[in-house]
């Protein structure tokens, strides 16, 4: 067992005997936890002793695993004194499982020389009888041996090893677990630069630095002066701790920091520069330099320019090949315009910088990020002394203050090549957008000098991109810290006329230029990847067989890497989507091969591109042997698969959003001189995700029209008529509705409505319905989509695009019965409205009975015309239907037309399928040497979590007939002629796609306008949000009810929203009817029908008021009972709100009573209008007097803003009084017969003021509340009245008598 021995060091009390007792080990228990081990090159030495407990010589063998080794002699341990050995190892008591924790002194380990620790170890030791040997166990840490931990956060990592001591069959095993951590010293601010510009001699300036331990283990640090420009002035710079004591280093615990106060007292004019080294005592490689720089002058100089942004700029962790930017804002605080020039000094090796300036107040937006590369000026910063770079395993940058680089607008070809070769244009936009640092491209300007007017604020954007370094560099894949300074010199602009101010002698020269220093830093890392294996050997692969292998792409850098596979092959497929790999992680890429024909030596190359470091592109060679054991390649002897005109065995749909249909055409070309029949079957992991269709056949083998073609010819035009196509019809409705609103009431409609509607249609719009379908019924009946299956009574004027169709009334039959009415449609071969070719066909159709379909009989050309139109529609869908919408448009009108067109194309897919033109492909008949297209329709379904996945499906082809002329293709080797196609296997045709997700959200699902009046416009907006990376196409639709006509969208009703962006779509709501309004607005996602949203527009619409009363409550204060009149007179102000004269009646309402039965009744003075005018004038005069007093005070205090405000109010009051007097003079107030009512005549928009007094009845108590009312209504409309409440308080009798006697 473990026991203590007398006379041994106190820190080595542990002794353990072997299993058979031949030897004992002291200082090394069976289970050891070695704690607080440093991974910064400090090798831990753990001494232990082995004693021979036998009376004979013993040979002890030593075996170690992991990072352990044993040395018999170590010069580092031999140099440690006895006193230091006593405190070298700190031993903690054993825990429950018997593990003993031990920690070695880091102070002693720092004195070790690594050379002695690198010597080899021993495998055995020979011990005489009862002899004790001192050995040293070395623990040499390597981060690659760690079991876990986070190297980026510098946490503890675990290492494990074993030591086996054996003497014959007697053994002793030690299990060792070590907790090691890497110490990292950091500084705040990260720029490690302090600049004191334009300081004054004799004054003291203070700045604060912070030294921080970023690791989970303590460290010791020191600070020393490396370089200074003036050793005599070094005493003027003091470094103090929080207790104001001199500071030169110390100890920092885990995750702790300390403050360094930098105090500088300028002693002489000029520049003072001092560079310090802050070093991690546990790791000499982890050192940081910081620079102090000051410029002193004799006198204080007022600043011309102030820096409004951060004084220190940190670009953070950056990836080479990606642009990063920061904004710097300056304000001119002088009274003259200044010119600023910029220069960079410091460690800018390998950095490409750009700069741009924009006017203050612009709001950076993600949509303008792509313009940054054009707006910013490239310039490579080259220095005479680049100063190197630093990482965690390299020394810090020693900034060269002497070298400089001008930021200029002149670009070099090398810069363009560096920027373009990185392939990071799009990635730059994404990074800048994510950080919110984008620059408006249309507001950015190239510049050499920055001119700032007096009092103006300007913003300069500084962007940088690190150039990738080679993989042979020491810091490849690691962060390298680069610090530099942007010096900004401000001087008076040429021609500026400053305000004359007295200038002290000797200051003119000093004020020639003023400098601002902006320290900058960036942690730059170049991504490196490794691809394994470098050779993909598929071996022998059967034709028509899919075989897959995997590539492993490892990211060796401390930043994420983006890779993309590039290859040119019809046989090999792999993902082409960029793959982002996390730092120090890996990703797998599947490579599929599907041979089409025999090839004994197939060779291809796959290039795995590192998107941010093109020097690190990897080339993978692919080798395979294509054989045809099952004779699948013989399918090529019969037919070829062409996509669209290239022979290949797969079709790639590209990017397809979920829940959206996409079409591709695959042509089957018969290479035989006899017909073929092929069975087609679709197979996919998702049932119903894709299907194969064939077009309807117009004629059979005998040349007759097929019944299916006749059905399509009847069905398609009717479906097309019923469908709500958006291309032109809705646009025409919106246009005509706007013209109707703008047209004065009663004016006639403009002539030739059909011609005006036709002008809105584009000349190339072949598929859209005519814009005048619902305007002119004659043109509607004559449209190509409706004839010859609609009733036509007369010839109509058709638009030029439909001039090939001629509709004419047919002659009635002999009986003249209306039930036998027939239609005649002339279909001409040429689109010439003025010519009638001789070959024109008169098609006579009997009138269809209710519910019956007209019989086309021999209408070959009519049916062929409809089928031809369906073919044009199909071609348009395949060529123009976009799965990823475009985002750049010449104008809003072009964007609107584009989205409407896409909506139409999606609807036409339904029409072609529903009409029967596209039928499921089961068996395809190929004519001799003919070609038959197969339409593959893909509609992947699923939730958003499927986005980013790859869709894989298969089409299977099988020959089902027996070609009669295949004798020439007989297999002579096997002696078998292909008289039976059953010997041929099924051919597989691959269908692939990359799945995307399109998600639409709206900012507000309920828009409550509140209370409003009829014909009162209200401006609102909808916020359409795109929550996916794919551009979003939206379509805003209304219900089509009468109430929906009150909603008017000015523009952007159809549009495209970029990825993760939003758009405000404004509309005007003008209700035409009163009542409760609740209308639904549908916002459809064009690419995902399941993702449509609805917004409810709510309002309470009231009838418009015809007159307005300024106050519906008049308070008369205290009144006396039985006195007439009583109380102060009040003014009742009435205004006519309409455009015609109104006659109103004002009368008292029956008394509502009050407390104890007292009542209050309104009375009108004899000179009601004159007295009201006097009351109004008196109130206005009181307000004017109060404002004049305030105006005098503001003038006396020199408050210019308040003076202007009071004068504006005075002018408004005075002019308002004059207008009120003029309007009151126009109003006529007459008393009616009972002398208790008034009749007021108001002109259009006129106003009237009426004086009102009250009479209180007797019987009330003192102080009781009295109430009354006035009723105002139109003379001829007594239903709609407005009630004015009258209130007062009854005055006491005693108080009234006393006041009367006095």
Any overview of this molecule?
The protein is α+β, with helices and mostly antiparallel strands and 1302 residues long. 15% of the residues lie in helices and 40% in strands. A 7-stranded mixed sheet has the order 7-8-3-12-11-5-9. Strands 66, 68, 69, 71, 72, 74 and 75 form a 7-stranded mixed sheet that branches. Strand 7 (89-91) and strand 8 form a beta hairpin. Helix 15 runs antiparallel to helix 16 (1200-1226). The longest helix is centred in the C-terminal third of the chain and has 29 residues, at 1168-1196. Mean pLDDT is 75; it is low at 1-8, 143-151, 360-447, 497-511, 742-858, 967-981 and 1295-1302.
Sum up the structure in keywords.
17 helices; 40% strand; disordered C terminus; 1302 residues; flat; disordered N terminus
Strand order of the largest sheet: 7-8-3-12-11-5-9
From the alpha-carbon coordinates, what is the Rg to the nearest angstrom? 47 Å
Percentage of residues assigned to helices? 10-25%
Helix tally equals 17
Mean pLDDT: 75
Termini gap: 119 Å
Kindly summarize this structure in a few lines:
By secondary structure, this protein is an alpha+beta fold.
Ordered list of secondary-structure elements with their pairings:
Blueprint: E1 15-17, E2 23-26, E3 31-38, E4 44-52, E5 58-64, E6 68-71, H1 75-78, H2 82-86, E7 89-91, E8 100-104, H3 106-109, H4 114-117, E9 124-127, E10 132-139, E11 157-167, E12 170-181, E13 185-188, E14 193-200, E15 204-213, E16 219-228, E17 237-240, E18 249-252, E19 257-265, E20 270-280, E21 283-297, E22 305-307, E23 313-319, E24 324-332, E25 338-346, E26 351-359, H5 372-375, E27 377-380, E28 405-406, H6 413-421, H7 425-435, E29 444-445, E30 450-452, E31 457-466, E32 480-492, E33 514-525, E34 529-532, E35 535-542, E36 547-555, E37 561-566, E38 572-574, E39 579-581, E40 586-593, E41 599-610, E42 618-627, H8 635-638, E43 639-642, E44 650-657, E45 662-670, E46 676-684, E47 690-695, H9 707-722, H10 726-742, H11 753-759, H12 777-781, E48 805-809, E49 822-827, E50 841-846, H13 860-880, H14 892-915, E51 918-920, E52 923-926, E53 931-938, E54 950-959, E55 987-996, E56 1000-1002, E57 1006-1013, E58 1018-1026, E59 1032-1038, E60 1047-1049, E61 1054-1057, E62 1062-1069, E63 1075-1085, E64 1093-1102, E65 1107-1109, E66 1113-1119, ...
Parallel strand pairs: 3-8, 3-12, 14-21, 23-33, 35-42, 44-55, 57-64, 66-75
Antiparallel strand pairs: 1-2, 2-4, 4-10, 5-9, 5-11, 6-10, 7-8, 11-12, 13-15, 15-19, 16-18, 16-20, 17-19, 20-21, 22-24, 24-31, 25-28, 25-30, 25-32, 26-27, 26-29, 26-31, 32-33, 34-36, 36-40, 37-39, 37-41, 38-40, 41-42, 43-45, 45-53, 46-52, 46-54, 47-51, 47-53, 48-49, 49-50, 54-55, 56-58, 58-62, ...
Helix pairs in contact: 9-13, 9-14, 13-14, 15-16
């Amino acid at each position: 067992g473990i026991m203590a021995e007398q006379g041994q060091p106190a820190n080595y009390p542990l002794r353990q005997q072997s299993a058979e007792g031949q030897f004992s080990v002291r200082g090394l228990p069976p289970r050891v936890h070695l704690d607080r081990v440093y991974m910064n090159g400090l090798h831990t030495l753990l001494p232990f002793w082995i004693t021979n407990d036998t009376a004979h010589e013993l040979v002890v063998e030593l075996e170690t695993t992991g990072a352990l080794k044993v040395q018999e002699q170590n010069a580092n341990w031999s140099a440690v004194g006895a006193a230091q050995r006593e405190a070298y190892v700190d031993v903690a008591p054993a825990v429950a499982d018997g593990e003993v924790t031990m920690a070695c002194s880091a102070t002693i380990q720092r004195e070790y020389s690594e050379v002695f620790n690198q010597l080899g170890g021993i495998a055995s030791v020979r011990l005489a009888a009862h002899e004790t040997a001192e050995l040293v166990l070395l623990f040499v840490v390597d981060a690659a041996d760690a079991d876990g931990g986070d190297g980026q956060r510098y946490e503890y990592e675990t290492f494990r090893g074993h030591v086996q001591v054996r003497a014959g069959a007697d053994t002793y095993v030690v299990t060792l677990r070590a907790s090691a951590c890497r110490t990292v010293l950091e500084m705040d601010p990260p720029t490690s630069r302090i600049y004191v510009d334009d300081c004054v001699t004799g004054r003291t300036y203070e700045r604060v630095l912070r030294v921080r331990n970023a690791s989970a283990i303590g460290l010791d640090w020191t600070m020393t002066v490396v370089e200074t420009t003036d050793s005599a002035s070094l005493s003027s710079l003091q470094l103090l701790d929080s207790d104001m004591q001199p500071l030169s280093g110390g100890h920092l615990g885990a995750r702790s920091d300390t403050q360094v106060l930098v105090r500088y007292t300028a002693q002489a004019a000029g520049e003072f520069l001092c560079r310090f080294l802050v070093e991690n005592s546990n790791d000499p490689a982890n050192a940081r330099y910081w620079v102090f720089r000051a410029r002193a002058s004799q006198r204080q100089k007022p600043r011309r320019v102030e820096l409004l942004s951060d004084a220190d700029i940190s670009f953070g962790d950056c990836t080479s090949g990606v642009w990063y930017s920061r904004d710097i804002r300056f304000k001119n605080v002088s009274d003259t315009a200044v010119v600023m020039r910029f220069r960079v000094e410091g460690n800018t090796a390998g950095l490409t910088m750009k700069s741009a300036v924009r006017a203050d107040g612009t709001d950076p937006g993600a949509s303008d990020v792509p313009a940054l590369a054009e707006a910013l000026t490239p310039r490579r910063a080259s220095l005479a002394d680049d100063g190197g770079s630093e990482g965690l395993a390299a020394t810090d940058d020693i900034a060269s203050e002497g070298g400089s680089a001008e930021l200029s607008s002149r670009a070099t070809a090398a810069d363009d090549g560096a920027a373009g070769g990185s392939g990071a244009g799009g990635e730059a936009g994404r990074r800048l957008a994510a950080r919110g640092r984008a620059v408006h491209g249309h507001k950015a300007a190239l510049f050499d000098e920055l001119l700032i007017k007096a009092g103006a604020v300007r913003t300069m954007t500084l962007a940088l991109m690190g150039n990738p370094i080679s993989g042979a560099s020491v810091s490849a894949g690691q962060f390298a810290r680069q610090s530099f300074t942007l010096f900004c010199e401000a001087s008076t602009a040429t021609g500026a006329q400053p305000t004359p101010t007295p200038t002290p002698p000797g200051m003119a020269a000093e004020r020639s230029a003023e400098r601002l220093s902006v320290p900058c830093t960036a942690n730059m890392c170049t991504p490196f990847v490794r691809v394994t294996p470098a050779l993909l050997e598929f071996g022998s692969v059967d034709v028509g067989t899919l075989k897959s292998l995997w590539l492993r792409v490892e990211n060796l850098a401390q930043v994420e890497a983006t890779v993309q596979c590039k290859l040119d092959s019809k046989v090999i497929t792999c993902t082409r989507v960029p793959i982002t790999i996390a730092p120090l992680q890996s990703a797998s890429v599947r490579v599929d091969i599907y041979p089409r024909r025999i090839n004994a030596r197939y060779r291809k190359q796959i290039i795995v591109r590192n998107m941010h470091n093109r020097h690190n592109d990897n080339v993978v060679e692919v080798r395979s042997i294509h054989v045809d054991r099952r004779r699948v390649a013989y399918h090529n002897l019969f037919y070829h698969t062409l996509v669209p005109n290239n022979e290949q065995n797969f079709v790639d749909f590209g990017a397809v959003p979920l829940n959206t249909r996409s079409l591709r055409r695959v042509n089957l070309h018969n290479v035989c001189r006899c017909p073929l029949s092929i069975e087609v079957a679709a197979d996919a992991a998702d049932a119903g995700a894709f299907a194969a269709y064939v077009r309807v056949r117009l004629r059979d083998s005998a040349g007759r029209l097929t019944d299916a073609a006749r059905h399509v010819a009847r069905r398609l035009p009717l479906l097309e008529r019923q469908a709500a196509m958006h291309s032109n019809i809705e646009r025409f409705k919106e246009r005509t509705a706007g013209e109707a609103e703008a047209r004065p009431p009663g004016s006639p409609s403009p002539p030739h409505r059909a011609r005006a509607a036709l002008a809105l249609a584009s000349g190339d719009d072949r598929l859209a319905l005519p814009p005048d379908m619902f305007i002119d019924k004659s043109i509607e009946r004559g449209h190509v989509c409706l004839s010859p299956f609609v009733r036509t009574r007369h010839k109509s004027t058709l638009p030029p695009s439909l001039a090939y169709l001629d509709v004419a009334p047919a002659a009635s039959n002999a009986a003249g019965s209306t039930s036998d009415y027939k239609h005649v449609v002339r279909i001409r071969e040429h689109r010439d409205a003025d010519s009638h070719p001789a070959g024109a066909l008169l098609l006579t159709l009997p009138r269809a009975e209710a519910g019956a379909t007209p019989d086309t009989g021999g209408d070959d050309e009519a049916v062929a015309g409809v089928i031809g139109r369906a073919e044009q529609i199909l071609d348009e869908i395949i060529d123009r239907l976009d799965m990823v919408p475009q985002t750049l448009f010449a104008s809003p009108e072009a964007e609107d037309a584009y989205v409407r067109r896409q909506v139409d194309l999606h609807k036409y897919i339904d029409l072609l399928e529903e009409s029967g033109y596209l039928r499921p492909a089961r068996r395809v008949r190929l004519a001799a040497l003919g070609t038959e297209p197969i339409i593959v329709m893909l509609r992947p379904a699923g939730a958003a979590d499927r986005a980013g996945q790859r869709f894989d499906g298969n089409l299977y082809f099988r020959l089902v007939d027996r070609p009669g002329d295949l004798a020439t293709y007989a297999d002579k080797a096997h002696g078998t002629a292909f008289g039976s196609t059953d010997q041929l296997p099924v051919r597989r045709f691959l269908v692939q796609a990359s799945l995307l997700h399109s998600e639409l959200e709206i900012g507000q699902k309920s828009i409550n306008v509140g209370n409003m009046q009829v014909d009162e416009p209200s401006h609102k907006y909808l916020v359409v949000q795109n929550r996916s990376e794919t551009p979003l196409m939206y379509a805003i639709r209304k219900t089509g009810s009468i109430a929906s006509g009150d909603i008017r969208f000015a523009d952007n009703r159809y549009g495209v929203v970029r990825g993760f962006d939003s758009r405000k779509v404004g509309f005007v709501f003008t209700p035409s009817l009163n009542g409760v309004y609740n209308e639904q607005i549908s916002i459809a996602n064009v690419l995902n029908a399941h993702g449509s949203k609805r917004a409810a527009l709510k309002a309470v619409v009231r009838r418009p008021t015809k007159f307005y009363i300024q106050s519906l409550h008049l308070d008369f204060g205290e009144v006396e009972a039985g006195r007439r009149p009583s109380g102060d007179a009040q003014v009742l102000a009435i205004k006519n709100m309409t455009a015609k004269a109104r006659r109103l009646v004002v009368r008292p309402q029956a008394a509502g009573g009050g407390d104890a039965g007292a009542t209050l009744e309104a009375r009108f003075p004899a000179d009601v209008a004159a007295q009201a005018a006097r009351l109004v004038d008196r109130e206005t005069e009181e307000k004017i007097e109060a404002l004049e007093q305030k105006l005098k005070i503001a003038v006396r205090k020199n408050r210019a803003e308040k003076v202007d405000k009071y004068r504006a109010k005075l002018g408004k009051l005075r002019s308002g009084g004059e207008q009120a007097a003029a309007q009151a003079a126009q109003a006529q107030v007459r008393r009616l017969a009972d002398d208790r009512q008034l009749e007021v005549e108001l002109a259009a928009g006129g106003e009237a003021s009426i004086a009102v007094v009250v009479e209180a009845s007797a019987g009330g108590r003192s102080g009781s509340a009295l109430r009354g009312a006035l009723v105002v209504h139109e003379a001829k409309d007594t239903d709609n009245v407005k009630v004015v409440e009258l209130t007062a308080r009854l005055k006491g009798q005693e108080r009234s008598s006393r006041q009367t006697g006095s």
